Amino acid sequence: MIGGHRHANSNHTVAEGTMRSIVLTKGVPDFSEGAVSFDEDGHLERGKTPTVMNPNDEFALQAALQTKVRHGGHVTGMSMGPPGYAEVLQGAMETVYADDTYLLSDRELAASDTWATAITLSAGLEKYQEEIADVDLVFAGFKTADGETGQTGPQTCWAMDWPIVTHVIALDIDPDERMLRAKRLVEGDIDEVETVEAPLPCFVVTDPEFEPTYRKASHRLTHKELRAETQQRAANHDDYLTMWDHTDLNLDPDYIGLDGSPTIVSSVDPIPKAPSEREATMIDPAEDEIAPVLEELQPHAAEAGD
Amino acid sequence: MTTETDVYEHYEAVVVGCGPGGAAAASRLADHGIETLVLERGTEAGAKNVSGGLIYAEESAPYKIDDLFDGFRERASERPVTDYYIHNIAGNAVKTYDLTDLHEHDTDWCDAVLRREMDSWLEQRVHEKTSETGGGVLTNVHVDGLLRENGEIVGVTCDELDPIKADLIVAADGVNSELAREAGLMDWEEPDEWFQGVKAVVDMDPDAIDDRFDIAPDEGAAHLFSGDLFSDVRGGGFLYTNEDSLSIGTVFHLDSLVEQEAEPHELLDALLTHPVLAGWFQNEYHEREYAAKLVPDSKKVAHRRPYRDRLVLVGDAAGQMQAQGPIIKGMNHAVSAGALAADAFAVTRGNRDPEAAGRRYTKLLNDSGTMDKLRPQRYELSRSVSEHDAVTNAVERVLDSPIGSLAVGNPIADRLLERAYNSPFLVSMLPDTKTGYVTLPTLIAEEHGKTIYWDSDVEPPSLEERIGDLTYDTDVGNPHIELLEESYEESGAAVTACPVSAEDFGGGCYRSETVKTNGTAETLVSLDTQPCVECGTCAIVADTEWEHPRGGKGIEFREG
């Protein structure tokens, strides 16, 4: 970018087709205060509770957006669920400025567990690769807010037989070398971060600590341009949405939905409230700090002794 | 050989700040087909901007803002000023002069503005225009310094972005321009080179405004106030009508504020609660926003050669704020300067000399007459005599004597005084002494004024309430101002002069406390930047290391 006069617009033109990403997202009941509805037995009333995008997927979307802003290309949002999940994908389009969306939707898919979901999603990804385009990156969120399951992403990846990087908090892509460099949390611990490399195509599971970074003005201008462009697209989301059912995906009903789900949910128990916070004071026994504490405890000890 | 800076992004022009100066520069650069990046530290342009509230379009100016931005008056401004008055006040006696002639001199039009609305509208237009030539506007970006290569300015550094190189750097980063200071072109040294303004935006129904100011919905009023209501502090007050609010403020010489140890918010309250305003409020007072701003006195600080290497300064950053007697003109000059800087770059583009654009810009400022308005020759000639203390004292004694009352107090003098106030030539020579601000207006009111026999029931909010009503995105643990010297001698003036601090008030930026050690008592000053409105006063009156907060952080003005 140095020397001589460059053609106007060269700074932040999105290079076409360099990176193709798919973001997996799902709808979850809106657990926010006031939105969630329970029946008398304390069971969630799905019908009365609005569906929103799984909050952890936000970070997967941000990672895909960062890839598109920095390297250009195409972002597809993909989800499995009832037709109503189209709204979730529309929301994803608004957040991630996705170019188009795919919804895998079929009565046969109802009551899928994570395994059956992963089988279905991988079939969707395979079909996408065969009919639409080769995919460089698949992004998934850390876990769902409803089931607290975090295995759908990794299981889908296993079905694809791709490399996977999880707990990603920062991401760099080298499109020429077709390599990905990620900072990830080791054991999910924020104090321990490692940098790993993986070849593309690759599966990326983002951690809620993921933060996109845009240190170039051109990237921020592209980001702003995409935002304006996508607001219009999201308003006409139906024009950009493709629905695939189990015949489109060429899936045997015995291996999907309830029949294809090896796990069975026997019951759901409410989680007991966490105990209220207690204050703790660190005492150094080597110093003279222990004496006042003992003094304080003395009457209680005496009581116990009585 | 490639150097480290070769990897940096490059734009033909980088404009820092998207107020009227930066917007005019960027708009003209885009007109010339130049790739222009605009970096604005506010979350939206206008979020960091405050002005008293009048923008002028001068007939003699090289550029007017509506030439550059079609639809400006319909979309971005408030009411036009059709009525203009000055009120000379002595106690409850008020003598009012019609200043419309002075106001209309060389004025094509003049509108009241609120800066959040105005500047955010400009930002959108600028982004549309600059996007077409490969650039655009980015908000929430704080440009914190200059990028140098072999000692020469070649770009900017930012908190949020990697360094950026440019063939032209326009510093339109306001009165506290960090770029102008880093380049060594401006400083924060002398209080007598600055004014400080504080302002309240007060809610008022449009119909009530029409009725109480006796104007039509497409008309507006401006009122100025001077005299003894501000004690001996040199300065005055103003009131402008907006669509559905009033902008009411006071502007004082900073050196006078410091000398008198005056509290700016109390001086504003003296105006707000004066009976002369009571008829307009009719016992209703709802303050939307309290704000403050430093005003450069262009007569003293407008830089005659506002450039270094590839850097040019425009608007407040270059000290281009003209106090023409009671009328303050800043935004119009920033617009002219910004557009001229862009034109200068367009004609010198490709010149190997990095200072070609700056030199050309300086010439355009002179040839267009802009520099002579900012730094009038006749002021420079008369200043050395008229601001001399002995002269001031002599004139003060005459005005104080029976002869003074006789001279100012006769009916012929009344007519002459109104004419004198309306003479742009005379007001541009008015010395910055007590005489023009306090003694003369007070005497006029005493001799010619009508006495008001009612009181005001207005109770303005306390400083604590005003700060509480402001919007901040505090950069926790990252204060942008550092107090270098905590002794009261060096930094104590900030406790009173800071518009969000006061003696015996613990909730402001600056506070003083007496510390007793080993039997000796010492008064020390401490600083908490949380309530800071980024006016820059303390950079001048205290010993600080002063920077703006990071992009999007700090105060966010809603009205401005």
Terminal CA distance of chain A: 85 Å
| Largest protein interface, residues of each chain | A-B, 19 and 23 residues
Percent of residues in beta strands of chain B: 25-35%
DSSP strand content of chain A:
15-25%
Globally, the shape of chain A reads globular
Structural class of chain B: alpha+beta
Fraction of residues in H or I helices of chain B: 25-40%
Q: According to CATH, what is the class of chain A?
A: Alpha Beta
Described by strand count, sense and barrel closure, the largest sheet of chain B is:
8 strands, mixed
Number of strands of chain B: 26
- In the CATH hierarchy, the architecture of chain A is 3-Layer(aba) Sandwich
Number of domains of chain B: 3
Keywords:
heterodimer; A: 306 residues; alpha/beta; Rossmann fold; nine-stranded mixed sheet; two-stranded antiparallel sheet; 6 helices; 29% helix; disordered N terminus; B: 560 residues; alpha+beta; FAD/NAD(P)-binding domain; D-Amino Acid Oxidase, Chain A, domain 2; Alpha-Beta Plaits; 3 domains; eight-stranded mixed sheet; 24 helices; 26% strand; globular
How would you characterize the overall build of this protein?
- The complex is a heterodimer of chains A (306) and B (560).
- Chain A contains six helices and eleven strands.
- Chain A has 306 residues and is an alpha/beta fold.
- Residues 1-17 of chain A have low confidence and may be disordered.
- The longest helix of chain A is centred in the last third of the chain and has 19 residues, at 217-235.
- In chain A, the strands form two sheets. Chain A has a nine-stranded mixed sheet, sandwiched between helices.
- Chain A has one domain (20-255): HUPs (Rossmann fold, 3-Layer(aba) Sandwich).
- In chain A, helix 2 (86-96) runs antiparallel to helix 5.
- Chain A starts with 19 loop residues before the first strand and ends with a helix.
- Chain B is α+β, with helices and mostly antiparallel strands and 560 residues long.
- Chain B has three domains: 4-78 and 113-186 and 303-374, FAD/NAD(P)-binding domain (3-Layer(bba) Sandwich), CATH 3.50.50.60; 80-109 and 188-299 and 383-469, D-Amino Acid Oxidase, subunit A, domain 2 (D-Amino Acid Oxidase, Chain A, domain 2, 2-Layer Sandwich), CATH 3.30.9.10; 471-556, 2-Layer Sandwich (Alpha-Beta Plaits), CATH 3.30.70.
- Chain B contains 24 helices and 26 strands.
- In chain B, strands 1, 2, 7, 8, 9, 10, 16 and 17 form an eight-stranded mixed sheet that branches. In chain B, strands 15-11-14-13-12-4-5-20 form an eight-stranded mixed sheet.
- In chain B, strand 8 and strand 9 (152-158) form a beta hairpin.
- In chain B, helix 1 (20-31) packs parallel to helix 5 (115-131), helix 12 (331-348) packs across helix 13 (356-367) and helix 16 crosses helix 17 (402-409).
- The longest helix of chain B is centred in the middle third of the chain and has 18 residues, at 331-348.
- The termini of chain B are far apart.
- The relative contact order of chain B is 0.16.
- The A-B interface holds A 1-2, 5-12, 214-218, 220-221, 224-225 and B 6, 8-12, 33, 35, 37, 39, 127, 131, 133-136, 138, 141, 160-162, 164-165.
